[in-house]
Amino acid sequence: MKAKYDKIGIDYDLTRKADPYLMERMLYHLQPTVEGVYLDIGCGSGNYTHEFQQYGGQYIGIDPSMTMLDKAKKRNTAIDWRIGTAEETGLDTESVHGMTAFLTLHHWPDIHKGIAALANVLKHKGRMVIFTSTPKQMKQYWLCHYFPKMLAGSIAQMPSLASITKSLNNADLEIITTAPYSIHPDLQDHFLYCGKHNPAIYFKPQIRNGISSFSALAHTEEVIQGLANLRKDIDSGGIHRVMKSYENDLGDYVFIVGEKNCL
């Protein structure tokens, strides 16, 4: 079976770029050193991996999509790019000092097996920095109003915070912090809820093509109708009422940081 991003990753880099703030937060939680070896699991085309490597250290980028890895190799030849998955990295036990998982958990077939396998290659006191969204958060996206079936599908494949916590604990990873993140208006990485403050961005086909929910889960008819309803509400001002009805204090995404504490 081909990896999902072998199909939808062709123009990925046109809209998916490393966001400076998110990159800074990932580095803050990872706490890399220039002597360390770090893994970016589900690295995609290496947007964030490349930026991390600029701060020193050795980096390994692993992804199941050769299409994405081919893009990554063209971006940075100093990084060790490898085909693989969270469950099967091919890395030695306790061989990396830390790892990042940026918006990738929902693509793993088995989150418990994936985190356990990753913990096995992580050194003692090494950190696993996860950036994801939870079903609870996603139910508060105003996108649910316009694309209910698509969001339902996206939510169904998203691991809950409780599930992630259980997997980390079972793998002897102590949770250091759980930090919610709300979309910034100047977000440069156009993932699913990038248009929270700018609904019109979803009218751009390139934006939708770079988002797996739109490109792999959505029904064409729903997208057409949803965009028509969104355009109508933007023109009438009704979008403000819809957006306000979904306001909450849960955050849109979350950083989860686990540290390996077994000897």
Structure overview:
It is a single chain. The protein is α/β, with parallel strands linked by helices. The chain has a single domain (4-260), classed as Vaccinia Virus protein VP39 (Rossmann fold). The protein is built from 13 helices and 7 strands. It has helices at residues 4-8, 20-30, 47-53, 66-75, 111-121, 135-138, 143-146, 148-156, 161-170, 205-209, 212-217, 220-236, 238-245, and strands spanning 37-41, 58-63, 80-83, 96-102, 122-132, 173-181, 253-260. A 7-stranded mixed beta sheet has the order 3-2-1-4-5-7-6, with helices on both faces. Strand 4 (96-102), helix 5 (111-121) and strand 5 (122-132) form a beta-alpha-beta unit. Helix 5 (111-121) packs parallel to helix 9. The N and C termini lie far apart (38 Å). The model has no long low-confidence stretch (mean pLDDT 93).
